[in-house]
Design a protein that fits this description.
The protein has 248 residues and is of the alpha/beta class. The chain contains twelve helices and eight strands. Helix content is 48%, strand content 17%. The chain has a four-stranded parallel β-sheet with strand order 2-1-3-4. A four-stranded parallel β-sheet has the order 6-5-7-8, sandwiched between helices. Strand 7, helix 10 and strand 8 form a beta-alpha-beta unit. Helix 1 packs across helix 11 and helix 6 crosses helix 11. It is globular and about 55 Å long.
Length: 248
């Protein structure tokens, strides 16, 4: 029997308990007959003041993913969407595949993860070879993200890490700061700009920036939800949030 509101799919969304951006972002992208059900991964609001504390904090989140999976699956979920990106880059392509496989085995359904979704988004746009990216992370994590992208065939020309001091501080980064960063990252040597870090609010800005920069600007929340819709077989176009959901 089909859910009377989720007539096409009930999506389970996994995100850190400190994340206040993913839930409203994904609600903007829902298509008729798809419902989102957020499951919070218990996450203390870590003080990430160094490479070491940042990594320690993200690994704490990773350890608590399983409980969030078990909780949301009691709602008869059809598909999972990962609303935390850093840990999906760890270990490169094989590490991302391992994380994905572990969640899918535990849940019995498929999941879209940020690392793979961004790469797939680049392929959907086509002719993207050189990229620059921004994150709320510390340098150690940016190096991991860079390695994942380059392993996937993308040359990283530049990157910028905001080094946000806490998980909740990520959601407080103002738009004018991100506009300045995008302008610093852009150049004739870059085919596309990418934002990672799911608690960094950039869905609307990325859509607008595509117009004034004249090139793809991929926000990880947009890419991940787009990937979930398409992988689940839903081809509906969603307008007003950038080319990815409108055209591909």
């Amino acid at each position: 029997m089909t859910d009377v509101q989720g007539t096409r799919a009930n999506f389970g969304v996994l995100g850190p308990s400190t994340n206040t951006i993913v839930q409203p972002d994904f609600e903007r992208m829902r298509t008729p007959g798809v419902t989102n059900h957020y499951s919070r991964i218990y996450t203390p609001d870590a003080n990430a003041v160094s490479n070491e504390t940042f990594m320690e904090g993200t690994l704490t989140i990773s350890k608590n993913v399983g409980d969030a999976v078990d909780s949301v699956m009691t709602a008869d979920i059809d598909y999972l969407v990962m609303g935390m990106s850093a840990i999906t880059f760890y270990g490169g392509i094989e590490g991302g595949k391992k994380f994905q496989a572990e969640v899918e085995e535990r849940s019995g359904v498929q999941i879209s993860i940020g690392s793979l979704s961004v790469v797939e988004a680049c392929r959907a746009y086509g002719n993207i070879n050189k990229v620059a990216f921004v994150s709320p992370y510390f340098p150690v994590a940016n190096e991991i993200v860079k390695g994942y992208f380059e392993e996937s065939g993308l040359e990283v020309v530049r990157d910028h890490c905001l080094q946000c001091p806490t998980w909740t501080a990520i959601a407080k980064v103002e738009e004018h700061t991100l506009v300045d960063v995008l302008k610093q990252l852009d150049g004739d040597d870059v085919d596309a700009l990418i934002q990672v870090g799911t608690n960094l609010s950039m869905v609307s800005l990325a859509a607008a920036a595509e117009k004034w920069l004249g090139k793809p600007v991929i926000a990880i929340n947009t890419a991940t939800y787009w990937h979930a819709l398409r992988r689940y077989g839903i081809q509906d176009k969603v307008y007003g949030i950038g080319r990815l959901l409108e055209e591909f």
